[in-house]
Design brief:
alpha+beta, Umud Fragment, subunit A, elongated
Length: 179
């Protein structure tokens, strides 16, 4: 019996067995880190049916780069301070915008005119309007820079909403790069 005690005396318990709180702490740290990355850098959005993008179809989930037009804060100290170090979009570029009159609603739109260009608003008898600094036009909206959310990077996966998840998962639509 003495030899058995001597043998087990030098063996230590693993650190995770001694501290029961290390696993929940690791889960909390990873969760906070994921929320930070999703809130400031990348997010995933769903594409609605009837999108005009040449590659995307309804049901696609796309990865969006939130820093493409400047670091967009998830909270605001006023509408003009939502972006830090803002970068203007280029004409013809696809972007995710927050709809101006519907907070919390997003759309995938192409930039058709940038600041300094003239646009004619449909249904208006007025002459063409010149876009001011920080204002852009899409096919449907005239938006301010603070309504830009980000640039789509790629599809992550796609689901046919008419079918169940397992049968509706489109296996040919994983990680398609977007121009």
């Amino acid at each position: 019996m003495v030899t058995v005690k001597r043998y087990f005396k030098g063996i230590r318990k693993p650190d995770c067995a001694r501290s029961w709180w290390s696993f929940p702490l690791a889960i909390i740290v990873v969760g906070v880190l994921l929320l930070f990355v999703r809130g400031f850098f990348f997010t995933q959005m769903s594409v609605a049916e009837g999108t005009l993008h040449p590659i995307l179809i309804g049901g696609d989930r796309i990865l969006v780069n939130r820093t493409a037009y400047g670091l967009r804060l998830p909270f605001a100290f006023g509408e003009s301070k939502r972006h830090l170090a803002s970068t203007p979009p280029k004409k013809g570029e696809w972007c995710i915008i927050e709809l101006p009159n519907q907070p919390g609603e997003y759309a995938l739109e192409r930039i058709t005119a940038v600041e300094g260009e003239y646009v004619k608003i449909e249904g208006s008898n007025d002459a063409a309007k010149r876009l001011e600094k920080g204002t852009y036009a899409t096919e449907k909206y005239i938006i301010q820079h603070q309504h830009l959310v980000g640039r789509p990077i790629c599809t992550t996966y796609s689901i046919d909403r008419q079918r169940s998840f397992v049968k509706g998962l489109r296996t040919d639509r994983f990680f398609i790069s977007l121009p």
